[in-house]
Amino acid sequence: MKIPFLNRPPSIAVLRLQGAIGAVGRGTGLSDAALAPLLERAFRRRRPAAVALAVNSPGGSPVQSSLIGARIRRLAEENDIPVHAFVEDVAASGGYWLASSADFIWADESSVLGSIGVISAGFGFNELIQRHGIERRVHTAGRSKSLLDPFRPETPEDVARLDRLLGPIHEAFKQQIRSRRGDRLARDADLFTGDIWTGREAVKLGLADGIAHLVPKMRELYGEKVRFLTYGPRASLLRRFGLSADDVIDSLEQRSAFARFGAGRG
Hints:
This protein is α/β, with parallel strands linked by helices. The protein contains nine helices and eight strands. Strands 1, 2, 3, 4, 5, 6, 7 and 8 form an eight-stranded mixed β-sheet that branches.
C-alpha cells in the first residue's frame, strides 16, 4: 500500500532577499528582525531538502548583514540543511555578505558581485554657509561629539577617527568571506578592494561556484519533481494599494543604491 505523505517529492524552501539592508522600521528593505520569522519557517517547515536564497541587494548596514548571515548559518547547521544563494542583478557589499552565508553561490552571467569594502560618505557645507553669512553654533559635552559635522571644516582628527571605525568593520567583512569561501578564493587576486565583478569573473575568482538559475539548478540537484515553497514578507494594506509614503522614500533610496552597480530596477 502506498502511503501518500511518505512519497512526497522533496521540497525546496525559497526565500527572496531583495533590497537594501538596514534596521527595521521602514519600507521594504532587509533586516534581521523582519527576516527572522521567515527564515525560521523556511528551515523548519516540512523539512526542506535545501533552502534557496534569491539574492538581489546592493548592501547596507554591516551589522544587519552580519546578524542575518549568522542566523542563516545557525539555522542551516541546527537543521542540517544545505543553503544555495542565487544572485540576480546584484549581490554587492552587504548583499554579498548575505550570499556568502550560503554553502554555494550561483550567479547569472550578468550579475554583479563583490564590493567587499566599507564606505562612509557625506557632504561638506561649511563654505556654503559662510558665503551666505550663516553662523553655525554647536555646543557639546565631549570634544568628539560633533565628529564629521557637515557644516564645519573636516579635520585630520575627524578622518583618523573615521578610519579607526571603518578598518575593523572591513576586517570583519574579510574574515566572513575567508571563512565561508575558504580555498575556493583565488590566491593571486586582491578581492577586498571594494571592486565588483560580473558572474563569470566572480566564478573564476572563487566568489561564486557557477553560472545557474534557481529553478533549473535545484531540479538538477534535487530531482525534476522537486516542489518549491516560497517565503516572503506580507505587504501591509496601505502598501497593497500603493498608499505608503515610506515606500516612495524607500524606493528612491534603493534605486540610488542599485544604480551604483549599474543595476536598474524599473
